[in-house]
Amino acid sequence: MANDLNLPFELAAAADAFPMEGLGRLGEHLPMAWIEEALASTGTASIRKRRLPAEQVVWLVIALALYRRTSMSEVLESLDLVLPNGDDSALSRGAITMARQRLGASALGTLFDRTAKAWCSQDSARHAWKGFSLWAMDGTTFRTPDSPENRSTFGAQGYASGKVSSYPQVRAVTLIALPTRLIADAAFGEYEKNEMRYAQELIERIPDQSLTVFDKGFFSASLLLGLTLVGEQRHFLIPAKANAKWEVLSGSSDDALVQMRVSPQARAKHPDFPAFWTLRAVRAVLPDGSEKILLTSLIDQRRFRTAEVAACYQRRWEIETSYRELKQTMLGGPLTLRTQDPQGIIQEIWGALIAYNLVRLEMAKAAVEAKAQPTDLSFIRALHLIQHELMFASFTEAYGNIPGKLNRLREQLKEALKEVRRVRQCPRHVKSRPAKYPVRFVFKILK
Question: Kind and range of the H or E element at 16?
Fold first, then answer.
């Protein structure tokens, strides 16, 4: 079967993908069976015969993220998502909104979990680092439309002056696969909930034989020991805080084994934690010339050399690039998300994460054929190619030849390789801003 995780997706039969002209390409990665399972598990499958059943609404939510500046009605019409009837009348905006409300948010969350696990496991051996899979974890926020309901559900940022942010915000923490930038897991919700609490939800689901890179804000014995003491060979890499204290056991100032005391607070929460834990402190020189002390559970200095550990940390910034691609490039950097109510906002975020992964997955497949790394391709160019192809296919091509269409798309994606920027020849200079009204400025001087 095409939805068997043991079979490559390129061999998936066209009948197992969603039967739709425009989204058929991406439907190769998201079989109809997965959508049906998500709908059945959450009790949101359509029982009545509708022009816009739940299966189509799932694709609508995903497509709305790919076409952020296009209205729901235009996306439905352009991608031909509505089932035909006798008079081919258009669906009203109210009917579309009700269809999304019937679907809810849980089905999209379930579908994200299923797809993320399957997609991140593909080609994992190809991208392994010394037998480990590489991950990064960090947090971000999404602004929502301002309403009493959204403020009570998500909350907003408060300032020391007593003022509160103009818009409610959703706090999110994600786990991404560094080699492909696929989002492997996500937890989000109210803004007042600390990032550490969202990270704790994700820690339990990090796979074995892995190395996860964190920002220093996640330094916590509860979090990091919870990662290493559970599972098999689950390691971390994180910058040391300025006030961190340890005792050097062996090694040099550039690479040493150190011992740190586990805080009483952490041991009170986790009585099984040891009183001390042994870490490795590595001095890393960053590209800008600054230095950082990195703490890691990779204590085997022969297998994991100093320069290799430092290079892994430098890749942590790729998760910041992923947030920029998701929020600025794909979603267009809007002031707020497009949905008005809390359940719709959660649904929209899950749909955006799935859409982002679909683009990244196509880039990963194209990179294999181009004999390049997935991060060597331009996300902007790849997104534009996929957007144009989906719209073009819905108007001009008949459904059926999914492998052929995907091959053509991937041939185009190979041309999306990033150009290597030349090294800066001149130092940076801050120049004065030109006068906006030079004539008036001259008149004032003369006067």
Answer: none
What are the pLDDT digits (tens) for 204-234? Answer: 899 999 999 999 999 999 999 999 999 999 9
Name which of 15, 107, 2, 10 is nearest 57 in CA terms. 107
Task: State the Cα torsion 207-202-182-395 to the nearest 10°.
Answer: 130
What is the DSSP annotation of 99-156? HHHHHTTHHHHHHHHHHHHHHHHTTTTTT-BTTBEEEEEEEEEEE----HHHHHHH--
Amino acid letter, 272: D
Is 294 part of any domain?
A: no
Asked, for residue 333, whether it belongs to a domain, the answer is no
Report the chain's terminal Cα–Cα distance, integer Å: 84
Overall pTM surpassing 0.90 (yes/no): no
Q: 114: which 2 tokens?
A: 């299923």
Does residue 45 lie in a domain region?
yes
What are the structure tokens assigned to 253, written together? 């100032």
Most trustworthy range by pLDDT among 13-17, 54-58, 133-137 = 133-137
Count: domains in the chain? 1
Q: Is 278 helix (H, G, I), strand (E, B) or coil?
A: strand
Domain containing 16 equals: 9-108+338-414
